[in-house]
Task: structure prediction
Amino acid sequence: MEYKDYYKLMGVERDAGQDEIKRAYRKLARKYHPDVSKEPDAEQRFKELGEAYEVLKDPEKRTAYDQLGSGWQSGQDFRPPPDWEDGFDFRGGGFTGGDASDFSDFFESLFGRGFQRGGGARGGFNRRGEDSFVRIMIDLEDAYNGATRGVTLRSSEADAQGRPQPQERSLNIRIPKGVKQGQHIRLAKQGNPGIGEAPPGDLYLEVEFRPHPFYRVEGKDLFLDLPIAPWEAALGATVKAPTPSGVVDLKIPQGSGAGRKMRLKGRGIPAKEPGDIYVVLDLVLPPADTEQAKALYQRMHDELNFNPRARLGV
Amino acid sequence: MKQKTPSCLTGYVLEDQEPLSLADLCRACMVHAEQVIELVDEGVIEPIGRDNPAHWRFHGANLRRMRVALNLQRDLGVNVAGVALALDLLDEMEELRNRLQAHHW
Result:
């Protein structure tokens, strides 16, 4: 397994005081909290941070960790020394942190797993399993057409001795047509297992759309910036516009300006009352990279009496 | 690691169903009613029907807000007023990012 440098993870020196460690943790926790941060690896960083703090905030665990010495590098292959744990008692208690089931093998080999919540099925009582929440990334097109997507769930289940064991489960899930960003797909009884005779909890999949190269989603409506040539805007034209349900013809009225918003009714995310697509006109100038193009611009300059800055009084 | 065989499952969209009761929210988030009431009092989540908590119904969109609120409280030690402020700011940032994305290409 890989050695973890908890001091490096928290960005503190090995001789940092407990107050300093606490401040470093608070600051990094705010930065990498998965509900706040947009860093791509925020969730992973937040878990590692939690693990590092679990060790460094507890003087006993920190002392033990320090005894491994400072000669280790992050990621280096690691085995605990044979006399490890002599004089320490980590098992059962002293753990105050969040979800310990995500801690690394390195952490487990040093401090054990005996502390996890959830417990076993001993004692013969029944309790419904916990609901679990997982984020699922889908494409905008999936919301238009429906789709089947695979998700992998990680959880821990108690073995015969009541010790939690990590487990992976793959599910294929139908994405219902018309689902929107931030909504939840609820799957009854697919959450964490119940205790004793009780049923499992439910599984909630929180839907998130992958960013689309040209549509922007707001609820059930879509926004599309549609590039338009100056003569199409000036003279009016019928142009092609993409939509997730196919290409449509769009009539640009004569004299349209940049930023003009046009609505394609009912072309948004499908539903009983479907959303709309708002097309925002984006004027694109042809490049003046040929003699002919330059001549045309020159002619406009010579023949049109046009001051684009008239409104600014110059 | 044990692997279970894949199966194809059909769920339903929570937000399209009947609104959630106070008990539904408590169950989904594994909290006591007091914690939900605290978040309602601070305006973090909003019930339909303002009088008696027993008659409260919550639109499904509240579930996400509620979960983020509880995560922030637990992980960062933010109090309820702080959570309300953070959620409003997060919403605003989301909207701004969304608008920014539209002008990226």
About this structure: The mean pLDDT of chain B is 84. Residues 31-101 of chain B form a domain with the Multidrug-efflux Transporter Regulator; Chain: A; Domain 2 fold (CATH 1.10.1660.10). The radius of gyration of chain B is 17 Å.
